């Protein structure tokens, strides 16, 4: 699938994307990447975000993980990601599909545990095999001067937060051993752009479950849009943009009503 309307002849596509990314970097061409994260089974929101990305045009989409759980349409998301052939990072909720005990080390909230178990029960062997291809981290050259490092929570853990108010010394520990012009992770469901000792830290927010404020283990309040980010570089210039896309709430409600996910009641309350 091509995401740029113009200059499509140099647009990286699918499985060849990493080598094409390198070729663009060596040639000093502009590289524009869309970062999507924390889709959480929300097909309506993912379709809205992909339409926005197509309208803007990018060279590459990268998914930062937490793709299937909690929302009504886990398999639809996995189908769409496989069709996109975009690199995917392993989120904690993706690993919850592969390791059934792991969720209990993360939360004891029954509604979340039940929703994760519900999702796992619905995934096929092929869908689980697809999740096993997700990587912990990925480093991408943006141009001859700039690199992008992507992960889910922090470079060292898919369960760790990088927040706007994380103390700098704690950030040093969470980012230790890694260097890049731009570092991007999801997981908190909060959009963020922060400069830390010269590095731009980006959180694209959440496609499917954007939070109004830091949840800190409690029940979140959802925002009424879908979120993503773009990173663009050319000749040492770097631009990061945070995007918010309107979502059809009637379609969201209909999708949730049609499923028997344990989160159904809580989601319908949020979408009322
Ligand atoms: Fe998430
Ligand atoms: Fe996460």
TrEMBL record:
Pfam short name (any one): Metallophos_2
Q: Which CDD domains match?
A: MPP_superfamily (cd00838)
Q: What is the superkingdom listed in this entry's lineage? A: Bacteria
* Limits of the Calcineurin-like phosphoesterase domain: 31-211
Q: Which InterPro entries match?
A: Ap4A_hydrolase, Calcineurin-like_PHP_lpxH, Metallo-depent_PP-like, Pesterase_MJ0912
Give an example GO molecular function: phosphatase activity
Q: Which Gene Ontology cellular component annotation is one that this UniProt entry carries?
A: cytoplasm
Region (Disordered): which ranges? 1-21
* Basic and acidic residues compositional bias, start-end: 1-16
Family, similarity comment:
Belongs to the metallophosphoesterase superfamily. YfcE family.
Q: What is the protein's given name?
A: Calcineurin-like phosphoesterase domain-containing protein
């Amino acid at each position: 699938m091509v995401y740029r309307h113009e200059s499509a002849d140099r647009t990286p596509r699918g499985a060849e994307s990493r080598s094409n990314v390198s070729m663009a970097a060596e040639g000093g061409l502009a590289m524009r990447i869309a970062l999507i994260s924390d889709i959480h089974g929300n097909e309506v929101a993912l379709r809205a975000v992909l339409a926005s990305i197509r309208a803007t045009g990018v060279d590459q989409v990268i998914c930062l993980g937490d793709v299937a759980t909690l929302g009504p349409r886990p398999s639809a998301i996995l189908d769409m990601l496989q069709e996109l052939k975009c690199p995917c990072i392993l989120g904690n909720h993706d690993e919850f599909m592969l390791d059934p005990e792991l969720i209990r080390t993360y939360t004891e909230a029954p509604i979340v545990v039940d929703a994760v178990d519900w999702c796992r029960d619905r995934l096929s062997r092929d869908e689980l095999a697809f999740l096993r291809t997700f990587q912990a981290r990925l480093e991408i050259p943006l141009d001859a001067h700039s690199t992008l490092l992507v992960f889910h929570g922090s470079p060292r853990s898919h369960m760790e937060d990088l927040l706007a108010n994380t103390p700098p010394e704690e950030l040093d520990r969470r980012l230790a051993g890694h260097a890049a012009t731009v570092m991007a992770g999801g997981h908190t469901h909060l959009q963020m752009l922060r400069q830390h000792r010269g590095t731009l830290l980006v959180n694209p927010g959440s496609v499917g479950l954007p939070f109004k404020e830091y949840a800190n283990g409690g029940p979140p309040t959802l925002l009424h849009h879908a979120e993503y980010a773009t990173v663009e570089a050319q000749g040492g210039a770097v631009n990061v943009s945070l995007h918010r896309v309107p979502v059809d709430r009637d379609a969201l409600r209909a999708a949730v009503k049609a499923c028997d996910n344990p989160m159904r009641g809580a989601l319908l309350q949020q979408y009322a």
